[in-house]
Amino acid sequence: MSKIIKNSKFFEILFIFLISLTPFLWLRNGQVILGHDSGFRLDSFTYWLNLLYSWNPIPNFGSDWSIFKGFLITQLPEALFTTLTGSLGDGQLLTFIFWFFAIGLSMYIFVNSFHKDSKFWFLRIFASTFYMYNFFLLQAWFIAERAKFSIYIALPLCVLLLYKTLTKQISLWKGLFFFSLLLFFFNAGGAPTFLGSFFVSFAATLIYFAIRNFQKGGIRELTYALKVGILFLVGFIIVNAYWILPQAYLMFHNYSSSLVASGGINGIIGWEATISKNASLINLLRLQGIPDWYKNPIHPYSSFYLENVFLIGFSFLFPIILVGSLILIAAKGWKNHNRQLLLLILALFLIGIIFTAGSHPPTGFLYVLLIKYIPVFPIFRSSFYKFGVTFWFPAIFLISYGLYAILTNYIKNKKLYFLCSALAVVAILAFHFPYFSANFFTWNKPYSTRVKIPSYVATMSNYINTLPSSTRILLLPSLDPVFHADITDWNFWSLDLLPRLTTNKSIVADSAGAPPIIGNMYRAIELGNEEQFLRLAYISGVNKILWRDDAVYSNGTKVNAQLHYRENTIKSFHSLRLLKQEGKWRLYDIAFAKLPMDFFVPDNISVNSKYNSYQGQLMAEKSTTGSALLEDAKFSLGNVVNKQYIQANCVLCEMHAFENIAARIDVPQLRLLPNSKLYFLVKAKEYIGLLRTKGYEARALTDMIYSYRRIAEINNLLRKNNDDHNFNQEVFSNISRFKKNINNALAEANLLSVEKRNDLLIRIYAYLYHENSSTNSFIHNSQANAAIDNLELFIVQKMNMLENTIWMTKDKTDKKYFVDIPFAGNYSLVFTNIGQVTPSEIYLDGERINAQDARMEKGTHKLEVIYSPLENMLVKPADGELSFNIPNGEKERFTLKPLSRANLYTVSFDYRFNSGIPPNIKITQDAIESDNKYELTRKDGELLSAEGTWNRYEYIVGGDPNSKNFSLDFLICCKNGKNSNFTIKNLNVAQLFEPGVNFVSTNTNVQDTRVGNISYRQLDPTKYIVSVHNAATPYVLSSRIGYDAGWKALVLDSSKSQNNSSFATALFQNGLQQITPYKTNTFANAWYINKKGSYDVLIEYEPQRFFYIGGLISLISFPLLASLFIFKGKKQ
Amino acid sequence: MKRLLNLFLNLSKKTEKVTSEYQGRLLFLMIILLTLTVFANLPYFNILLTISNIIWIMILVSLFIFRIRMKNLLLIAIILIGTALISVLADNREVAEILGNSIYLILIIVFTSNFVEYLKEIKKS
Known about the structure:
The structure holds two protein chains of two kinds.
Chain A: H1 2-6, H2 8-19, E1 32-33, H3 44-50, E2 55-56, E3 63-64, H4 71-74, H5 76-85, H6 88-114, H7 121-132, H8 135-141, H9 146-166, H10 172-185, H11 192-239, H12 241-261, H13 264-275, H14 281-285, H15 302-307, H16 309-315, H17 317-332, H18 339-357, H19 364-373, H20 383-410, H21 414-431, H22 434-437, E4 450-451, H23 455-465, E5 472-476, E6 486-487, E7 493-494, H24 498-502, E8 506-508, H25 516-527, H26 530-540, E9 544-548, H27 561-572, E10 576-582, E11 585-590, E12 599-600, E13 604-608, H28 615-622, E14 627-631, E15 643-650, H29 657-663, H30 679-692, H31 696-719, H32 725-749, H33 754-775, H34 785-805, E16 814-821, E17 825-832, E18 839-844, E19 847-848, E20 854-856, E21 859-867, E22 882-886, E23 891-896, E24 904-916, E25 920-925, E26 942-943, E27 951-958, E28 966-971, E29 980-991, E30 996-1002, E31 1011-1020, E32 1023-1031, E33 1035-1042, E34 1047-1051, H35 1062-1068, E35 1074-1075, E36 1078-1080, E37 1084-1089, E38 1093-1101, H36 1103-1131
Parallel strand pairs in A: 5-8, 5-9, 13-14, 13-15
Antiparallel strand pairs in A: 1-4, 2-3, 6-7, 9-11, 10-11, 12-33, 15-16, 15-30, 16-21, 17-20, 17-30, 18-19, 18-21, 22-29, 23-28, 24-27, 24-29, 25-26, 25-28, 31-32, 32-38, 33-37, 34-35, 34-38, 36-37
Helix pairs in contact in A: 2-6, 2-7, 3-5, 5-6, 6-7, 6-9, 7-20, 7-21, 9-10, 9-11, 9-20, 10-11, 10-36, 11-18, 11-20, 12-36, 17-20, 18-20, 25-26, 25-28, 29-33, 31-32, 31-33, 32-33, 32-34, 33-34
Chain B: H1 2-40, H2 45-48, H3 51-66, H4 70-89, H5 93-124
Helix pairs in contact in B: 1-3, 4-5
């Protein structure tokens, strides 16, 4: 022991440990870190145990969480510490100290491996301290990003092991063993996005030594380097197989849908540009450039570093030291320096900065190319956060080494050297003072990840955890409508809902991506429709409601009279009773006559397409408790399907639908005009572009893009105001080419199917609309006048032709649809979302039909539905044109009838401003406080346009349930003595009307489903055994488990004895046919089973198998690697 | 007066000697710069030949032509860092970014040069 203490390195490590105790300053008086993306749970150990399963039953109806398998190791420390201490706060404190110390120790080990001598004490301590205290890490601490800490710790040690192995200072097998062990324990949480930084550094180090080894020993040494690289990668993969295999499964099944959900490649590039906006090279050289520092007035500390002259100057010391040390080396030579190491770290620095800068110039184009053309690379869409480790590690080492080199070179006096070294360490700690203030947890005042959990939350959560596993709780009030986040009045904010972090039961809420049935339940409560709510609750398995008085919305709305009407509504439901109240939380029980079971056989089966956008409405209005609405199942499925719903697609029904299409058309960029000598390049490019474009639609749109370019070129030519004959020839030629583009586009459109042609014609019309507007700005010259007039006439004629040809909705109550009928037969029409409005006339292909029974042939048909007029909510409807001259300080009021909270309304009118100052428009509902814009129920003081032409105004407003008086006001905002003179017409306030139409085919020969009874037992969250008795017909087995294609059904052979343990069933049920589920009722799984008799059905979540297989591989890999190390390593 | 004249004559002779050595190289640099400037004004070429790209190309070519020593190059980097500091304090972020890019380029050149030398030494040994 005394030997250890006498060793000065003991004190160095002790120093690192002492500065790891900073978290003691962070958590006080029962505070914990919770919310945002921190991922902490009230019961860390139970959460950790659940990580063993690939299905998480807690969020809504359950979801896959294979991607979190790596957290089994990364979140083990907090699970252990919280269990040992019995307190989340104490457990977190120990966890933070553990990670902090491990970070410092990692750099210490790295530096010490190359600089063991006692004279390097400053380098070891400074580098370790700097590695622990820097801004890249600080932005991760506000949510204690353990996955990032994990790779941050691993990286220096990985580089160290690679270095030692590639330079043969340690044997290949020893290096392999420790490398694999290291990456098993510090696995970046199994997050592929963080492993990007590891792979970049790994590849860079390998290439560096491959080149160096090749120079040294030729092909033989190069082969050795490649062998090391491949074996190390294999070692990494096999020890981490337990999370790699499930993620590989996930990637192959879900990658493309995730890409689309992120907005596609362009969406990802756009997001990346936002993150990299301030990651310039000069900022990174100063170890700054953190995205949320800039233009963020509420950032807790960034303003100091962006505005304080001293701190700005201090930050420039980092690149000065780095470059200064290189000058020193250039002047004095490499004699006293490890050139091999320093060049390697410099290489990592230079490569790391490119990746960390992401799409920021000047190297940003490389990153964008990688996103566009390398598959899977788009997952690194936040380059700064994902690759920052690759840069910060070498940067800190180089700066530390540089400072060490400068100090040792210029300060010979030992005492002075010690003083300067100590000052340097203190300076680096002082520069990063926000670490000690702890206000960095407040990421958006008043919201912080450092919170004190009220006692009632813990008490109620503990109670909920004692309820049966079938408990499924709906949260009220609904979540913040802007972010779908869970926000409380004690400053908790998270996209991960609080009850999901504190309980182990299924928690249902309208979080982002929630299936329509959840929104339908909230709407039913909104309407006070108990029958509909109970029916949907039964279908979804919701049997409890949790009301939370501490809920807050992002605009600051607290649960008060504004939202309490919803609790009053559910209190009025007869089937609900208060089960428990703790503080601000109240738990209600829903009493069903018959309890909803996890598995059941529906007696009424309908099918529809997954693209049917009215599924939610069909569920809300047409379902029964025993029904199943299957997606993408065939109508002929085993003769068990009663009905097929076929959606009719409404053409341009949404508000501003055409304007949105027109807005997506870009104004063409011109580089060369037709009179330029190089214009042939433009012609050639367009010609090649058209040749390469495949498909009629794409070619037609390409022709329209070129046509718009022709108009822009003509406009530019005319502006040159040249009457020269040759010049005007260019104008005529362009007009001719323009007409050819339009005619070609229209010809291409005619080759498409009916509905696609119609969509394309709408887009062509949108282009013509823009082109027509552009011709208004043409400057006429004498020679080209006739041709230009002819051009304008041509455009107008085409627009008129299209207006008569295009099938589209032009009126609120006269809707036009297309419907694609798959087979001839009799169909009935089903209308959803029409409320009290009724369809008065229905035309199919121009002929009037009966909604209850219409004979239809196979193919695409045009449907027109004329609905009864919508009620005008104006108490006194305004007919014709109305002119106003409103004096300053006064208003013109139109009283409205009471607006229902169940509906949305459109306020619309045409207006023309005449003189004075333009008016403001305000929609008032009298119970709303002035700063309360809950669900944008009213419009405050929006200024109308001052243009003298006719403009259209449309706005959607919802009804406030607590208001009694509603009005629409035109007023003058500012008291400046001026009045407002304007004219309006077509003033209308009516219900937002977006009806759904489905054609229904009924199977008159449907077979009655006859199944005796079913029972089930749950083996674990990923496995159920359903016992089916006396199935006499094929049937659909439906569930209330969230839909995922990984949930497979396997009909077990009743003749063989089955080992029903989870692990055994996962591995040994081979040779059985797997039945893929259909999505049912918009949220759950259902399987079609065509087997009679009595038997068991195994319902398993397939990705769990990959975890077991991967786990086995990981388990076997350790003894394998250890034996290679022991036997082969010794030999070597 | 005579001394002053002699000093001036000596200085001009020295300057003439130095400039004649670099005349050819300077001329070459001017031609490159002129060519790049002409092309930068042509359509399609101006996408690639932005001002910052031209600066990068000129720095690289100058370093090659004038065979600037590493130490001097690094001293230039220090000056650039100082200038960048002034730019940041003066809230001129664009200039600071351009200077940062140039510093990075210098570091790449330093690394490349040192790595090549290192490889040569390994081969010799």
